[in-house]
Design goal:
Ribosomal Protein L24e, Chain: T, two-stranded antiparallel sheet, elongated
C-alpha cells in the first residue's frame, strides 16, 4: 500500500537526520495517514479512503467530502478519488438539469 494521501496527494519527503557532530544521513519523513470512511451526501454512500490527518481536518472544515472534492485539483487526487469526483459532478449536473 502506498504511503500517499488519496485526497491531497501528500507523499513521503526525503531529508537528513543530523547528529550532534553534524553528520548527515538520509531519512524519510512519512505522512500521518489514517484509514477513514467518509460519506458522500449527494451520492448517498460511503467511501473508505487513506488520507492524512491534515486532509481530514480540511474535509471537516469545508463541510464534507462532496465540498472538498468539488474544490480539489484533479491532479492531486488519486484515481479512486478522481472517479468519486466525476460521479459526484455527474450526479449534481443531473440534479440541476432535472
Amino acid at each position: 500500500m502506498s504511503r500517499r494521501c488519496e485526497l491531497s496527494g501528500v507523499n513521503r519527503q526525503i531529508g537528513h537526520k543530523v547528529s550532534h557532530s553534524n553528520i548527515k544521513t538520509k531519512r524519510e519523513f512519512q505522512p500521518n495517514l489514517v484509514d477513514v470512511t467518509l460519506a458522500s451526501d449527494a451520492l448517498g454512500r460511503s467511501f473508505k479512503l487513506r488520507i492524512t490527518a491534515a486532509a481530514l481536518r480540511t474535509v471537516d472544515h469545508r463541510g464534507g467530502l462532496d465540498q472538498y472534492l468539488l474544490k480539489a485539483k484533479a491532479e492531486e487526487l488519486s484515481t479512486r478519488a478522481a472517479k468519486i469526483r466525476r460521479d459526484l459532478k455527474k450526479k449534481l449536473n443531473e440534479a440541476v438539469a432535472a
